[in-house]
Write a structure and sequence with these properties.
D-amino Acid Aminotransferase, Chain A, domain 1, four-stranded antiparallel beta sheet, single chain, about 550 residues, elongated, alpha+beta, 3 domains
């Protein structure tokens, strides 16, 4: 089918008209397609087949030799959506006069703010997330008497958005659809950089926070705060690799273990020299500007991580960004930290684990969770007063008084890395939530021996993450010290009662925190609520 000059002018008119309505243009094109199909100018089947064929041809024109490995599903959806738009304009210009487009635009403008009914046949699967969110928000905000008619549509849209933005795990979706509101999903999208899902770690954190915000008692709700978080979508990893000529490393998982280990230093070196596409780099620059001097942590959030049935804990790396340099230095540090996390996904250890669990053929894409570090400045250091890992089931019962179902904590002073990645020469405080003051070690000397000796923190002056002896960091001016440490005196542990301290006699026990506050009780209730609504044991940082 060829177009003469009049039809070409009509296409230009369509382009210029729709360019004036950057948000409503998707709704307008949906109405245009509806008119095409209803008038039998082109059948839906033929239209969709042609769009699919042209999208594949465009991959070849753009130099993709192996589209399945070089292009993410999210990028393919974007490509197909744009081809569908072009094809819509083409057929509409060929079959209908410009006046019909004007009528459609006027009708759409008069309906602005009403549900997107004309997408009954196209469904939200084909919509960009932004437009699906806009229309779902309209549905969610309808008066209750009108909204009831659209509940099936709203539930369908919510599932589509969870699958596009967060996770396609059915076990996760089955829980998440009951708790997330469209407004929650919109906030997630607003904080997502690049295409793809936000991955398992981010998904678990957001769902846990959402559940507790609804069902936790008020005294617990007021103590819950989710770290300020941003997400690099799972499609960004391959975009960076393609942009930087790194796709030669995409097949690492199928190589012998020895070859993977031998090649990894060279792979990591090349990843550290990689660049991000301009649109991603600009968003990272904006993030650095927002952060200012606040430290950040770059964490993996892979599609398999925090999975139902498989644990990827510790398989991928996390990196702290102190952010104490100038903007250019901080951006370079952030970019290299992201690249290091990507490179860690191609190490032998996670690949071997995936082989052992039957997940080697899964298209494991790494999303990134970027968070502002929780904590406070203490002299030249930045650290939280406490951090750790919590489990809803206690599998380490050192006394018959301990109830398995009451849960368990590994608690440390400073950054939680020492609780997550336990080191051979140091020990977190182990807390059985049924008996929080009961130590696993017997006697003061044993408690002192198996207590925390080093603290992980960010050295603001040196602009680095580091580990230091507790005695080098602690001082009498540190206000929370009386909750964290006790004094060894005459063979007994006692609370700190003055600012005069002997560092050699201090022991980090957290006993005063556990004795004087409701921290242990509130952690126990929170974990039990999460287990109840997840319908399985949970652990959380």
């Amino acid at each position: 089918m060829s177009l003469g000059l009049p039809a070409l002018n009509r296409i230009l008119n369509i382009y210029l008209t729709l360019n004036r309505y950057p948000v409503l243009s998707t709704r307008i094109r949906a109405r245009m397609r509806k008119k095409l199909f209803k008038s039998k100018a082109v059948s839906r089947k033929k239209f969709n087949a042609e769009a699919h064929e042209k999208a594949i041809l465009s991959q070849s024109r753009e130099g993709l030799r192996d589209p399945f490995s070089e292009e993410s599903s999210e990028t393919w959806e974007l490509r197909l959506s744009r081809v569908r738009d072009s094809l819509t304009d083409f057929y509409f210009a060929y079959h209908f006069p410009p006046e019909l487009l004007d009528e459609i635009v006027i009708k759409i403008l008069s309906e602005h703010g009403t549900p997107l009914l004309e997408l009954d046949e196209d469904r939200f699967d084909f919509l960009p997330p932004e437009l699906a969110l806009d229309n779902a928000t309209t549905l969610e905000n309808l008066p209750s008497e009108k909204r009831s008619n659209f509940e099936p549509r709203l539930k369908d849209t919510k599932v589509v958005l969870i699958r596009k933005l967060i996770s396609d795990q059915l076990a996760y979706i089955n829980i998440a659809k009951k708790w997330f509101k469209i407004s929650d999903l919109k906030k997630i999208r607003d904080r997502t950089i690049g295409p793809g899902k936000i991955g398992g770690k981010a998904a678990g954190m957001l769902l846990a926070a959402r559940i507790l915000s609804e069902v936790a008692p008020n005294e617990i709700k007021k103590h819950i705060r989710t770290p300020d978080s941003y997400y690099l979508g799972s499609g960004v990893m391959y975009e960076m690799m393609e942009y930087s000529g790194l796709m030669k490393w995409a097949d690492q998982k199928y190589k012998p273990d020895a070859q993977i280990r031998a090649e990894h230093p060279h792979l990591e070196k090349e990843f550290l020299q990689a660049k991000f596409p301009d649109e991603i780099a600009e968003r990272l620059e904006d993030l650095i500007e927002k952060a200012g001097k606040r430290p950040m942590i770059v964490r993996s959030s892979s599609l398999l991580e925090d999975n139902f049935g498989h644990s990827f804990a510790g398989k991928y790396e996390s990196y702290f960004c102190p952010n104490q340099g100038n903007s250019e230095e901080n951006l370079d540090y952030l970019s290299k930290s992201i690249a290091r996390v990507y490179a860690s996904a191609l190490r032998a250890e996670p690949i071997i684990y995936r082989q052992q669990t039957g997940l080697i053929d899964y298209d494991e894409r790494i999303a990134i969770l970027i968070q502002f570090v929780e904590g406070e400045k203490a002299g030249d250091y930045f650290l939280p007063h406490g951090a750790g890992v919590a489990f809803s089931r206690n599998l380490y019962r050192w006394s018959p008084e301990i109830r398995r179902e009451d849960g368990f904590l590994r608690l440390v002073w400073g950054l939680g890395t020492r609780a997550v990645d336990q080191t051979g020469n140091d020990y977190p405080r182990l807390v059985a939530l049924s008996r929080p003051l009961l130590h696993p070690a017997d006697g003061v000397k044993a408690i002192q021996r198996y207590s925390q000796q080093y603290v992980d923190l960010i050295d603001l002056k040196a602009n680095e993450f580091t580990s230091l002896p507790v005695s080098e960091v602690v001082n009498s001016r540190y206000a929370p010290l009386r909750y964290i440490a006790q004094n060894v005196e005459d063979g007994y542990l006692s609370a700190l009662r003055t600012n005069l301290i002997d560092k050699d006699k201090l022991v980090l026990t957290f006993d005063e925190l556990l004795r004087r506050t409701r921290f242990a009780e509130e952690m126990k209730i929170s974990l039990q609520l999460l287990e109840e609504h997840y319908k399985s044991p949970v652990d959380t940082e």
